[in-house]
Amino acid sequence: MKIVLPASWNGVTFDQYQQIIDIVKPDAVLSPLEQLDLNIQILSIFSGVAVDVLEGLSMNRIGELMNQLHWMDQPIKRKHTTFKVKDIDRITYDMFVHFNKLAETKTTNQIEYLSLFVDIPKEELKQKPITEIMHG
Fold first, then answer.
1. Percent of the chain scored above 90 by pLDDT?
2. Is the pLDDT of residue 36 over 50?
């Protein structure tokens, strides 16, 4: 089975990045089995292959795939963004209230936050490369 993974942060969408930060806790101390489970989830997010399918692969193949993600330890190199933040006079009361409600829930959903302030539909924003989003 051919499994395609991004070759760098530039190949990671905002949506994939959001999913990764929701499951990867940098300070977490994981057992070897927990780390393997996390690796399978990461591979699934990046490849689009279901977790149960990945769990059927050999340990060697999982290791090879994870080695392809060596770039994840590198900082995200930001590139120029093509979208603009809305002018302050275009921020409505409703948007402001929605933003504050999100803050109260302490959501980590950066897509939801950013979609309030840019003129890009949320679904399109999800597909933008994270290297472009992190710049903005």
1. 46
2. yes
**Single-letter residue type at 79:** K
- Residue 96: partners with Cβ closer than 8 Å, 6 or more residues away: none
Full-model pTM: 0.78
Residues β-bridged to residue 118: 85
Neighbours of 18 (CB within 10 A): 18
Burial class (CB in 10 A: 0-12, 13-18, 19+), 34: exposed
Q: How many CB atoms lie within 10 A of CB 128?
A: 21
User: Tokens 């990764």 label which residue?
Assistant: 20
Output the six-digit token pair for 19.
């999913």
